Amino acid sequence: MQDTTKRAGGAAGPLRPAEPRSGSLRRTSDVVLRWREASILLACIVLAAYFQFSNSAFLSLSNIKNLIDFTATTAIIGAGEVMVLVCGEVDLSVGMVYALVPFIMHFAAQDGLPAGAAIIVALTAAGVVGLINGAITTLLSVPSFVTTLGAMFLINGLTLTISGGFPIEPEAPAGFAAAFGGNPWVRLAWAVAIAIVLQFVLNRTRFGLHTIATGGNPTAAAEVGIKVTSIKIRNFALCSVLGGFAGIIDAFRIGSIDPLAGGSEIMFMGIASAVIGGTLLTGGSGTIVGALLGALALAILQDGFTLNGVSAFTFDMILGAAILVTMAVNVRLTLWRERGGG
Amino acid sequence: MADIGPEVLRAEHVGKSFGRIAALRDINLTLRRGEVLGLLGDNGAGKSTLMKILTGYHQPSAGQLYFEGEPVHFRSVAHARSLGIEAVYQDLALVNQLNVHRNMFLQREPVFGGPLGILDERRMRAEAIEMLERMRVRVPSVDVDVAKLSGGQRQAVSIARSVYQKAKVLLLDEPTAAMGVKESALILELIQRLKEGGEVAMIIIAHNYAQIFDVCDRINLIEGGVIEFDKLTSETSVQELTDRVVSEYRSAREGVRLEQRG
Fold it and tell me: Is residue B114 a part of any domain in this protein?
């Protein structure tokens, strides 16, 4: 016994011979891991350079504000989708929550609640939608695609019913409106802050680790005692709340609450941002910062082609092609990564 | 067969039926601390049912289990695990997208920041390296995703994780299945070292008895839900086991032939 312990301890680390290799492997894997975000960042830079070259107004202050408007709320929804995608699910209803939540805020304010409380009530309602999505998906074993597809139609109908189908004007003290998105720089700050916080949550906290484990290997996660159901439900709630928050920001930006705003279009843009940014639809792997950059890339495309007078129809073709190309590259990269980095 | 400690796990007349089908009929089995028991048997002989009873996944329909001499009733996998009974399933227990040290600490992560639950990455890393060094498990680095490790390395990390969780009994389900010779040797060596450590008892469930024969102290052969053969490895041989399996195979073939004629 004594001898065994001594020998094991005295072996001075079987890891030692592998040390130099470990260093280079770590560096390689770091680069590979960063590569996912680096590639989309590079795409953004190339696209921005191209549009600046073809139209010098592209990087003017007023157009940068446009870019922010195209980016911010999509990025916030994309961040929520990344969390849900990482745990192996998808949320199709978030765009409808985006449309519903400003109405709840408005009605709560009309009932005499102060603006801050109205926002809290509205975001709580969004959270409840997420809880229901998550509970139906996990407890009743309905695929989240189906659960949230149903929720998408249901919430859209609810929004149209309570609004009567007409847009209304948000009422809030001026300072309040500015703090929640009345100003493009504030919108940018919200999007960036949410991305940084969630990136930290996903990669540096126990909740994030369990989210990755839940999506990566649900059986193993459950076996070691992770409460897979609770993790999924909380991520659905988080995604819904972010969708609602994006809706509030846009309501203050546009100065009108439109029952037809957002919807499936902003939801798909959010998912596209996540996917282009490097998040896998199969779960277990994702990046929030990637989704922010993905939203930026989509915004640059959208805004740049608009500036150059390309029609919306062409834009959709380009967007579709961009998603196909990035997905193909992403899948190749994942295979390469799994084979041990070449 | 050095110092075999006190009894850890015992099954007495354990039976398990699913409806009218008796998967296990009368299982008597004893496992001592530091002992390695090879549990062999054909497909459908009842190996996996027995394993599931020992891990608390199934409850026996007859008989009694004893843990460290006391009668025990495993209510669930979590309950059996809390007593120190860990099963290591081939390649299933790790999350490919996470690195080695995060896998080793999954669900037992050291955290700080209270409710924020910020991972203490440095501590996980240091302790994982120390643990793997002590068990002499070689991985390129604890920072690589386990997807990049070989089957043998992954299996070794799973075993190391269970040992780190203070397992008293390790149940290894086909630990060398689907592995090359070199990889298998790696796992068998690890089992040998754990045995020398004398802290854990192990049950190895396997088809390929020739491979695990040398690391086992005792061999149990399960046939038709009953342990038909229980001998110390020092008192038997691979040849004897082969003869037994061959004669069983012959009688099975004879049975099939009679049925077809019948």
Answer: no
Q: Nearest CA to CA, how far is A18 from chain B (Å)?
A: 6
Q: What is the pTM of this model?
A: 0.82
Total count of domains within chain A = 1
pLDDT greater than 50 at residue A299: yes
Nearest CA of chain A to the CA of B58: how many Å? 15
CATH number (domain holding residue A72)? 1.10.3470
Give pLDDT, residue A191. 97
Cα–Cα distance between B169 and B6 in angstroms, integer?
A: 13
Give the structural domain span for A80.
58-335
| Contact between chains at A14 and B97 (C-beta distance less than 8 A) | no
Q: What is the pLDDT of residue B65?
A: 94
DSSP string, A205-241: BHHHHHHHHHHH-HHHHHHTT--HHHHHHHHHHHHHH
Q: Is residue B244 part of a domain?
A: yes
Helix (DSSP H) and strand (DSSP E) numbers for chain A: 14, 0
Q: How many Å apart are CA B186 and CA B155, to the nearest integer?
A: 10
Work out the pLDDT band at B99, boundaries 50, 70, 90. very high
Q: Is residue A47 part of a domain?
A: no
Predicted confidence band at B8 (pLDDT cuts at 50, 70, 90)? very high
